[in-house]
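Homework help board

Subject: predicted structure for assignment chain

Our instructor gave us this sequence and asked us to write out the predicted structure in token form, then describe one feature. I got the tokens but I'm not sure how to describe them. Can anyone check?
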Amino acid sequence: MTAVRIQEMGGIVELADVGTHQLPSGETVQLPPVILAEFERDPKKSTLCIYGHVDVQPAKMADGWTTDPFNLTEIRGNLYGRGATDNKGPVLAWLHAVESYQATKKEIPVNIKLIIEGLEEVGSYGLLELTRKRNDSFFADVDFIVISDNVWATRTPALTYGTRGSSYFFVEVDGPKLDLHSGVYGGSIQEPMSDLIALLGSLLDHTGKILVPGVTDDVAPLTEDERKLYDNISFDLEEMKRVAGVKHFLQDTKVLGTGATL
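My token output:
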């Protein structure tokens, strides 16, 4: 449906094959294609690539929805439905922006490319491989990438230029081969649960600062220009606490609250 909509708008569309995936049951399924599309191809213009996804998390009325999550509903000027903000709504907003230029017969100031997938919520299977394969073709002339997959901290539109990353590690703690009696063996052997708790507790201090040696060596320090930008951000700590359902944050100012401690 998304690909057809783009084609009807005059876009050039390719449904890029990203292969198959094996389910835990052993069954192999074909992955949905990734949409690669573009509206302009003027070498004199910069090229903007827009990323989006049209898959969503599961939703049902029993989860607490007051309206059908898969039937977009307007209530007092607000739109309710699964994917309204993450991420069907933003994808549609970009298409509407292109349509607005077309309807007013105004020239789009940049070349527009789109990459739209249907597996973001489960890990974007095949997407990384696809982008690497097309690095010297579809993405070769891309100057900017926009990801409209976020929420506003207030009612003021926000331009997000960075987010936190994640690192995953797998740890195994060895212990006795048997389930031992604590009254007999307690205090005389290394207990895996206690060891694991101690290990995890050594990663952070009580303020959330990472204690792993060298982990922040390559992290760029907060510059004075960035700090000034944060001062002007429309960000209400008290409202953020209310939304998060907590009484305190690890930091008490919006500048440090943005993650400068990391």
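Reply (TA_rk): Your tokens look well-formed. For the description, you could write something like this. The first strand starts at residue 12 and ends at 16. That's the kind of observation they're looking for.
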